[in-house]
Amino acid sequence: MLVDFNTLPETSRIWIYQASRSFTETEIEDIKQKLDVFIENWTAHGSDLQAGYEIKYKRFIVIALNQNLNTATGCSIDASVHFIQQLEKEYNVDLMDKMNVSYKQGEFIAYKPLNEFKQMAKQRAVSKNTIVFNNLVANKAEYLENWEVPASESWHSRFLN
Questions:
Q1: Same domain for 62 and 15
Q2: Which of 28, 36, 52, 86 is most buried (CB neighbours < 10 A)?
């Protein structure tokens, strides 16, 4: 059951998929339509899942699930992963690789392989104040508070001097 992302409780489980490139406005509209259909029909053992989504910075697909109503099961999580994999194929974009880092360079969102990010940290091209996206947040409250943070406040800090 599709609901407005903003109405979901802060305890809602979060999945963040970062794109290897920015989506175009046309792609975003298409992806929103596909997300609407997917989430509207997303179930766990035949029970509706109350979920919503948002697309941030033309790069991140954020799906939230109200687990107070029904929790995701292995099959429902598999269905969401399959859906994201279909988007990857259709739009020729990487959404599942967790070994990449997204961070802000001014208003621009940069996307680098983790090893390049580590090298940039050594060269001081990124610092503890660089705004990074912590895609490991687990729920909506963490997403709202700790997703977009200085590198010093994220797991990225281990690479900084």
A1: yes
A2: 52
pTM score, whole prediction: 0.93
Question: Helices 25-40 & 74-91, crossing angle to 10 degrees?
Answer: 160
Sign of the Cα torsion 63, 36, 108, 9 reads negative
What residue numbers bound the domain in which 153 lies? 100-159
Let me know: does 23 contact 58? Beta carbons within 8 Å: yes
Query: Contact, 59 vs 110, CB < 8 A?
Result: no
Tens-of-pLDDT digits for all 161 residues of the chain? 999 999 999 999 999 999 999 999 999 999 999 999 999 999 888 888 999 999 999 999 999 999 988 888 888 889 999 999 999 999 999 999 888 999 998 889 999 999 999 999 999 899 999 999 999 999 999 999 999 999 999 999 998 86
38 and 70 assigned to the same domain:
yes
